[in-house]
Amino acid sequence: MLKPMCVLKFFPIPLPHQRSLHFFCLIVLLVFGICLVACSPSRDANELVVGMELSYPPFETITPEGTPVGVSVDLAYALGESLGRPVRLENLPFTGLIPSLKTGKIDCIISSMTDTPARRESIAFSDPYLTTGLALLVAKDSPLTGIRDLDQPGNKVSVRQGTTGEVWARANLKHAKVLALEKESSAVQEVIQGHADAFLYDQMSVWQNAQMHPTKTRSLLHPLQAESWAIGLRKGDESLRGAINAFLKEYREQGGFERLGEKYLSDQKAAFEQAGVPFVF
Question: Smallest Cα–Cα separation from 154: which of 173, 137, 136, 138?
């Protein structure tokens, strides 16, 4: 005779009312958010967070040991000392500097940034601290002598994406093709390998790249366009802007920029004087 089988009964677990469920989820998210805030490192309210892209020697770069060095780095720390605020450097891609400033991730930009009308639509700038210009890097045996020779059908000009070199090239070159590349080294290689007739960039970088590749390239330093570098600030931050302008004036009067030139740019200064080109400081 078969034993009767056990009958299992399943009782449904009552689900919370929809409104209660929503309230429960909100409580969970709130507790999770509080935990994240509690675990996040706090920022010193007095801290000055300076954004720069550490890939542009000798102005802003980083040593193999991970230490930031260069003109902009020294300038940032001198600014912090003048303001009585500890400095934290944020290494960011150049194209991400202005968005980071506008969202409050950083307090200012010191990254060899040119003050332009287009950028002034988004951010404010301090008084200028450096004057430079756009120049050309060409092949060692190139017949080019200037922009008129370059802007011809069939010629190609490499530029770095997002820079004033790209803006100027697209606005002024009517015949030559513009090749916009993300990295400076890539734009230089286009010239070395014969894929571009010239690299359009600022005078200091053009000179430096010509020194790095003396058998392959040469520099045409006479500026195509004069431009000024300044410290980027959020619009409306007049208190910080006033303090920075006061610092720049005093720093210049006390020979700070002259010392930066001697420390980082002595060879460039001599080369510019020999070429009859005004130096940046």
Answer: 173
Distance CA 145, CA 220 (A): 7
3-state helix/strand/coil string of 178-211: EEEECCHHHHHHHHHCCCCCEEEEEHHHHHHHHH
Tens-place pLDDT, residues 236-276: 999 999 999 999 999 999 999 999 999 999 998 888 888 88
Flag whether the pTM goes above 0.85: no
Phi, psi of 116 (to 5 degrees): -125, 155
Determine the Cα–Cα distance for residues 228 and 275; give it in Å rounded to an integer.
Answer: 20
CB 201 within 8 A of CB 137: yes
State the sign of the Cα–Cα–Cα–Cα dihedral 172, 111, 262, 127.
Answer: positive
> Tens of pLDDT along 90-111?
999 999 999 999 999 999 999 9
Least Cα distance to 191 among 205, 209, 164 occurs for 209
Long-range contacts of 155-158 (CB under 8 A, 24+ apart): 155/197, 155/198, 156/190, 156/195, 156/196, 156/197, 157/196, 157/197, 157/198, 157/199, 157/200, 158/186, 158/187, 158/188, 158/190, 158/191, 158/195, 158/196, 158/198, 158/199, 158/200
